[in-house]
Every structure is written in C-alpha cells, then in structure tokens.
Amino acid sequence: MLNLYQLQIFQTVALAGSFSRAAERLYLSQPAVSQHIQTLESDLGVRLFKRGRRGITLTPSGEILTDYAQCLTRLAEETRDAVTRVEKLAQPQQINIGANPEAGIYLLPNWIRTFHQRHPALTISLKTAITPTIIQAINDNEIQIGIVEGDLDDDGTIQWTPLWSEDIVVITPPNHPWGNIDRVDISALAQEPLVVREKGSPTRAWEMQVLSQNNVIPQIIAEFDSPAAIKQAVASGLGVAMLPYFAVAPECNTQQLHAVRFTNTSLSRPINLMWAKGSLANQAVHAFISHLSQEFPHLPLQILADSDKIELLNRLKSTRRGSANSLAANMAS
Known about the structure:
Elements: H1 4-16, H2 19-26, H3 30-44, E1 49-52, E2 55-58, H4 60-89, E3 93-99, H5 101-106, H6 108-118, E4 122-128, H7 131-139, E5 145-149, E6 159-172, E7 183-184, E8 193-197, H8 202-213, E9 219-224, H9 227-235, E10 240-244, H10 245-253, E11 258-262, E12 268-275, H11 283-292, H12 299-332
Parallel strand pairs: 3-4, 3-5, 7-11, 8-9, 8-10
Antiparallel strand pairs: 1-2, 5-12, 6-10, 6-11, 6-12
Helix pairs in contact: 1-2, 1-3, 1-4, 2-3, 11-12
C-alpha cells in the first residue's frame, strides 16, 4: 500500500535532484531519505531513480509516479479540505447579504429557506437597500454577498456576475382599460399617471432613461421607496407602475393586479450576484453560492471555480512555506 508521506518525500527528491538537497529541505538525514525511497521502490517493485556520478535522474517509472504522486497528494488535500468544510458548516455562522428591495422581498426568502434546510447551523442576515448602498457595504465588509438589479460598472472594487435577466412589465388594477390586454405600446404610458420609486433610486433612474429614449414624458403621480407600497398604490387605482415580473407574479396570479408587456420593445434588467474579493474563501459564503448554483447552473464555472483557484493558490503558498516543517513533524511522530 502506498504511503502518502513517502510519496511526498519522493516528490521532494525529484524536485531537488539529489538526496542531500532533499534531506536539507525536509530537515531529515540523508540516510533517512534514502531509506524511505528504497522502501517505496521495494513496495512498487521498480527503480524510481538512476544513481550516477552527476546525481540522480528519474527512471521512466519514476516519471510516471511523479504525475500520480501529484494527483494523490492533491486528492489527499482535497479530501482533508472537504471533511473540514463539512465540520465548519456544522458550526453556527452568519452570512450577511444585501439585496435590492425587489430581490430581498420576493427572491431571497425562498432561497434562504431552502438553504437553511441544507445547512441548519448557518443563519443569514438580510439587508435591503439601493445598489450603491449595497456596494459600499460590501467594500466596508459589512456584507459578503449582494443581489442587485441593473447594469454594474466594473470598477474593480467588487466581483459580480449576472444570474439572469428579468422582464419588466407594467402593472395595472384589474378594472383598468388595459386589464383585458396583454400588450400595449410604450408611448401609451404618457397618458397614464405613473407610480415610481423614490428619487436617487437606480431603478427610477433606469425607468426615466427608458421613457426618455422612447420619447415618453411621464406623469408622475406618486413615489414610494418599496415595491410593496407601489403595488398597493396601483391596486387601489392610483396609477400604473413598472416592476420586474417576479415581484408582481403572485398578485397577477390571483388577479389582484394585471401585467402588461410592450408591443414595440422588450424591457428587461439583469439580476446580479456580487461578492467581496476574497470572501469566497469563507466556507459559509461558498456554501450559499453553491446552493444558488442549483438554480443557476452556470455559477460553478464562473464563480466556484474561481474560488477553488484562490483556495489552491493559498494552499500552494502555504505548502511552500510549511512543507518542510510538516514533513519533519510527520517523521518525528
């Protein structure tokens, strides 16, 4: 049976190119290193090194073992990390998440519910705010994850990726003249009292930009700081409003509201996942994003692979600094 410790010594000898240099790196005596290599060769029934006046070189069998030794060592490290990760996720931890009101009210609760079923020891603190506030909170290390709508600038302070694009619809009360149609020209919004988000909201800025691009001068009748208040205002007959469909689907399904799309244009906004640089090394944060990947299968390729690269780089740095001491400790035990 292969001995992982002896494989690590073999790798060190192969990299060093001599038993004496390997012994120095491992803080072992040269006879001890030679004995471990001889035992490994005996177990495998092959010669791993050619001994000559100019030093040692790998035999064909030794070259093959080099590749396998790297794989086995990496697999052993991944096994240890996986077992440790499970243990860490069983300990009480809190994940701090920020989201726009629409995502925080209508998307996150269900995601958090299913996540908690898988990881009951982990709790989540959810903060709802506009996008600039969430970005600042990430930069200030107040939250680790953000779920926001709209286009984002790649200013290098945060990392992000789109989850999906959500249709934007116009909502009306059921008894509105548009209550029996599915589509309307966007220019018709100029004739309707419009309920919008508060000033300073990126959602409102985007909405005003869209209307301006379509030569629509809005008749703003009221502004609110939450989608729930906007929906209630529309249901009461105050006016119409533009909201992402996921935020109004429950009321549309129960005919409390009616959703209308545009005939001459298709409006949608991206829903983005944001995170602080380095936060994916946190096992709890990694677990939450892994959970999201069940609904958004592209996440493992775009995010989780990146976090694994970070983890591997950190591990390699740590290994380079401490491999000699670790091997010496193993030898002593």
